[in-house]
Write a structure and sequence with these properties.
- By secondary structure, the protein is of the alpha+beta class.
- The chain has 6 helices and 5 strands, in the order αααββααβββα.
- A 5-stranded antiparallel β-sheet has the order 2-1-5-4-3, with helices on both faces.
- The longest helix has 62 residues, at 174-235.
- The protein is elongated and about 150 Å long.
């Protein structure tokens, strides 16, 4: 008996749909690749060129964020946006504590002109924490210090950057400190008033007790005298 195990197959290769040039350019633009100079073709995404990566994104084989230069540029852009829009004053200082860079909040808080780079930070802030940071190498977090103008209370944090420069974040907490002090003053005054009321009540209680004691003694003496009179009357 002869069995035939042969089989015949028809080629059914599935070919991925190719994007148009316009679609490729649109995908490239989404990762900041507008000109040829923007297309580094570094290969870190796993594809030989930025164009091949864009085609793979179109075909659903790759994530558009799989691009190291794009993600790095995006992170830097986000950092710059935070740097410029945070309400906290931010300074970058060199090792001599001179300003390398600062954000708009720092300029507004201290009234600094645009060309204030190179200014010694000690002109603006108490340097006690900076000296401590230099000696110990430990970051300073949320230290409250008076400003040089004597009008503001500042909260400052100091840390080191990888290149050895200093990052300083400062916020004005004058209003918070004033409210805290007012609350503390009110608390002390309330405690003092409560203690005075307690002391007065104790004095009144002692005076009442003293009066009650005298009255009780007089009543006892009168009743004893009356009792004796009655007894003597019965004997007669």
């Amino acid at each position: 008996m002869h069995l035939d195990f042969s089989a015949h197959y028809i080629e059914t290769m599935v070919r991925d749909k190719m994007p148009s040039e316009e679609e490729i350019e649109k995908i490239l633009a989404m990762t900041g690749k507008i000109t040829k100079d923007d297309m580094l073709n570094c290969g870190t995404c796993g594809y030989p060129s930025c164009r091949d990566k864009a085609i793979a994104v179109y075909q659903g084989k790759a994530d558009i964020r799989m691009c190291l230069p794009y993600m790095r540029e995006r992170a830097e852009s986000m950092s710059n946006r935070v740097f410029e829009n945070t309400p906290n004053a931010i300074f970058m200082l060199d090792r001599d504590l001179c300003i390398l860079e600062m954000n708009q909040a720092a300029k507004s808080l201290f009234g600094l002109p645009a060309g204030a780079s190179g200014t010694y930070i000690g002109m603006l802030l108490d340097t006690t924490d900076f000296e401590q940071f230099r000696e110990t190498g430990k970051p300073v977090l949320d230290a409250h210090r008076p400003a040089r103008d004597g009008k503001h209370i500042l909260r400052q944090s100091i840390s080191a950057m990888p290149d050895g420069d200093y990052l300083v974040i400062v916020s004005d907490v004058t209003t918070e400190e004033e409210e805290r002090r007012e609350h503390e003053t009110l608390r002390r005054e309330t405690l003092d008033t409560a203690q005075k009321v307690i002391d007065k009540q104790m004095r009144v209680a002692q005076e009442i007790a003293s009066l009650l004691g005298e009255t009780t003694g007089e009543t006892k003496a009168a009743l004893t005298k009356l009792k004796r009179s009655i007894i003597q009357g019965e004997d007669i």
